[in-house]
Hints:
alpha/beta, 6-stranded mixed β-sheet, 4-stranded antiparallel β-sheet, 7 helices
Amino acid sequence: MADIKIVNLHKEFGAGADKVVALDDVNLELGGHVFVSVVGASGCGKSTLLNILSGIETPTNGQVTITQEGGPARAGYVFQSARLLPWRTVMDNLLFVQEDRSEPTRQRCQRYLDMVQLGDKGKKFPGELSGGMQQRVGIARAFSTEPDVLFMDEPFSHLDAITARSLRAELHHMWQETGKTVVFVTHDVSEAVELSNRILVFAKGGRLAEDIPMDLPFPRESADPDVALAKAEVFRTFERIGALTVR
Ligand SMILES: Nc1ncnc2c1ncn2[C@@H]1O[C@H](COP(=O)(O)OP(=O)(O)OP(=O)(O)O)[C@@H](O)[C@H]1O
């Protein structure tokens, strides 16, 4: 579990007439065993926030600190596509990101492959797996390094609805089992409500418009009236901030 502190975070791209404010003075504290979803209309800075948290982008102003019990935290990433090395087997893709190749490490990787129900696919190459299976491998790989915090950028957006649904269930199970801090970017309000205990709604111009706690018990069924109400609250926020292009 990690502690994330974001202070006066500001990010601009371009200059002059081409200047775009992607994040505008964002202040946030996240930490512990939380699943935080970041939602908002296209272009409101969700991926930029995740890229800065992941160290892929640097902020224009402001600070981000990610710690674990006072020391530096270890982070794992899952992106829209699994980004596996096609010339390595599934198991070798997991081993590639480990600090060592010892037997206990191999067993740990196997455990995470089992968790995503691909325990028997370790010797396969990515090209022999479906897109959903490859994304499962990507999730197992991210968890297998046992990071303190996981950053996930729309990991299920390229998958069909049935595969996405089963992967959401697996992710939720792994999050509960492992006690990680997860920061999850999504366009999908239903997905955010189903998975999160906190939802950050971003508005155009990269402003954090609302920080909504989700205190409902898990598992959350969309037919449950409390889940429907929670979803409605997020949509009302979208309406209030003029973010009409939700998917
Ligand atoms: N590398 C870049 N160079 C220039 N502008 C960028 C760059 N990355 C992002 N932007 C701009 O910053 C703003 C925020 O982009 P970002 O990708 O963070 O939004 P988003 O909420 O993740 O969008 P989407 O939901 O469509 O993925 C947008 O206006 C985008 O065009």
